[in-house]
Specification:
The chain is α/β, with parallel strands linked by helices. The chain has helices at about 1-20, 25-40, 45-55, 65-80, 85-115, 130-140, 160-170, 180-190, 215-220, 240, 295-300, 305; strands at about 120-125, 145-150, 175, 195, 200, 205-210, 225-230, 270-275, 280-285, 285-290. The protein has a seven-stranded mixed sheet with strand order 3-2-1-4-7-9-10, with helices on both faces. A three-stranded antiparallel sheet has the order 5-6-8, with helices on one face. It is globular and about 65 Å long. Bound molecules: ribulose-1,5-diphosphate.
């Protein structure tokens, strides 16, 4: 009985992630972890967690923060499996709680570190909607720094509207541009820095983020503008250390054009890959690093997974 109820809870989280009611790489990782914590609270055993973990991981394929979060909780469950029922539950709830707290703290730590690289009078450009980027900008603003932001619309889902709304609410000057205006904006508006989030960072420093990010990075390189990625280390990919290729999600063509001619094909990849050579710095909760340093962090942070 309990199992049925908790599984339907997990299913509703899966639906929320699939339909993008819950979106953004950190948010989906934290939401998945919270739903697994709820499962444990309601009496879920290891098999229940494994089943739920599979469902959660299948919700969206590209952001590695989701499998990283689920797999770490399954690792914690295995680690505690020698304990009796009550003790197992108590220990696992503590461990998951600490893990969730760490993910939430990392956002705050990046905000602090990232805000230090924003200078007075900076002109910034961002793509899509990243909680991590927004937190950096809000922190810099709260420190009294004066800067302006250009935000791309981010077709087809228009997450740029969320970005502009959040920045306006925070009192940060922001201008909306269409995606294809990114390059000319960098030139005519004298953009100083491009700041984006990430869904996955591979061990070689390649960055997977919202479709269009790699074009923005190419334009930034053309104009000699710093291209900065703000990312929690939960989005680093231990799987890429083992040679796995990041699966790029393809979404429904209706997102691009609902009333299109029936014979028209539409290709709608949701993410793309920016080569590490286009990335100037990566801002993480562990500090600022070059993309080449990601390898070392993955080796240390995900040693529990790489050993398995
Ligand atoms: C969102 C997106 C964001 C990253 C990082 O894509 O690409 O840049 O997920 O976000 P979608 P955050 O809208 O398809 O989820 O910094 O919030 O984790």
């Amino acid at each position: 009985m309990v199992k049925k109820i908790v599984l339907s809870d997990v299913d509703s989280v899966v639906n929320d992630i699939k339909s993008m009611r819950v979106r953004g790489a950190l948010n989906i990782a934290v939401t998945a972890a919270k739903s697994m914590k709820k499962l444990v609270k309601e009496g879920g055993v290891i098999e229940t967690l494994q089943d739920a973990g599979q469902r959660l991981k299948s919700a969206r394929p590209t952001a590695v923060s989701l499998p990283n979060s689920v797999d770490y909780i399954l690792y914690l469950a295995e680690k505690n499996s020698h304990l009796g029922d009550e003790e197992f539950r108590k220990q696992l709830l503590d461990d998951i709680g600490r893990f969730i707290q760490e993910m939430e703290n990392s956002l705050d730590e990046i905000a602090e570190i990232g805000s230090n690289i924003i200078r007075d009078d900076d002109v910034l450009l961002t793509h899509c909607n990243s909680d991590t980027v927004i937190e950096i900008l809000k922190r810099a603003h709260s420190k009294g720094k004066k800067f302006t932001v250009y935000a791309t619309e981010t077709r087809p889902r228009m997450q740029g509207h969320i970005t502009t709304g959040e920045l306006l609410d925070a009192g940060i000057p922001v201008t909306l541009i269409v995606d294809s205006a990114a390059c000319i904006t960098m030139e005519t508006k004298k953009v100083d820095k491009v700041l984006v989030g990430a869904d996955t960072v591979c061990v070689d420093g390649d960055v997977v983020n919202k479709i269009g990010t790699s074009q923005v990075a190419l334009c930034a390189r053309k104009h000699g503008i710093d291209f900065i990625v703000a990312v929690e280390s939960i989005k680093f990919s231990p799987q890429s250390m083992m040679g796995s290729i990041v699966k790029i999600e393809e979404r429904n063509p209706d997102e691009v054009w609902r009333d299109r001619p029936s014979i028209l094909g539409v290709y709608n990849p949701a993410f793309d890959i920016t080569d590490a050579s286009m990335v100037d710095i990566v801002v993480t909760e562990l500090g600022i690093m070059p993309p080449e340093a990601v390898y070392q962090v993955v080796k240390e942070k995900f040693s529990w997974e790489l050993r398995q």
